[in-house]
């Protein structure tokens, strides 16, 4: 019973922490660290929420969550008789866990199908351009720049983007897209998109997805400015924002007008680095959440 109470308290703490974290002001100064914190909060919340129900459900076995589920799957008799409340908790816990896993798998499969179809389409309507080697160019007048993530990743720009941007600005945009590919930001976003699908009514889930989408763009900006001028990247973003850029296809990652000014401001006027004590504190918090929550699935308190 104590394990269930601790897991329930941890789930509530993660939910409250996520709600408070949506208004945190330091995240733009350390987007990679903020992404890690968001991931740890999400994983801990999911495990704690389902674990609390399952810990109560397997209480008749007088063991932890995982050992209790194994014993139930083997058909072993519990030390105490089942009652309707424990049965209901077992059904609710397994259902919630199954929903989270299935939604995550379905979101991943849909993204893979969308990217496979888009690669087939690109083979028909795009071409190579000696001016931007290794990049597929779309014959489209609107400005577009995005990447197709995956094992066979591709960076795509449109003829409209080539005409809109200078050579230095295009190099900055390509460095940004290459950062998305290299750091697999599509995998970072996938669990949050799945959580939003599982909890469409949750404002916290919607805010978390929006925050992480902005943070991965900022992280890619930080990576790109190692190879180009931050002002060139900021100018390119402003040009995309004012030119009415073509929407990024589903499942891809690209330049769009959403939150452009927040990204431009930090590129032109970067804030001070996050204090080392704050950085280490959030790292410790993330490690603690990702360690203690699975541990509570194994032991019985």
TrEMBL record:
UniProt keyword GTP-binding, yes or no: no
Cross-referenced InterPro entries: Beta-lactam_resp_regulator, Peptidase_M48
Domain Peptidase M48: 113-192
Membrane-spanning intervals of the chain: 6-23, 35-58, 87-112, 280-299
Pfam families referenced in this protein's UniProt entry, alphabetically: Peptidase_M48
Keywords: Hydrolase, Membrane, Metal-binding, Metalloprotease, Protease, Transmembrane, Transmembrane helix, Zinc
Family, similarity comment: Belongs to the peptidase M48 family.
Cofactor: Zn(2+)
Cofactor note: Binds 1 zinc ion per subunit.
CDD domains the UniProt entry points to: M56_BlaR1_MecR1_like
Organism from which the protein derives: Nonomuraea purpurea
Gene3D superfamilies registered for this protein in UniProt: Metalloproteases ('zincins'), catalytic domain (3.30.2010.10)
Name the UniProt record assigns to this protein: M56 family metallopeptidase
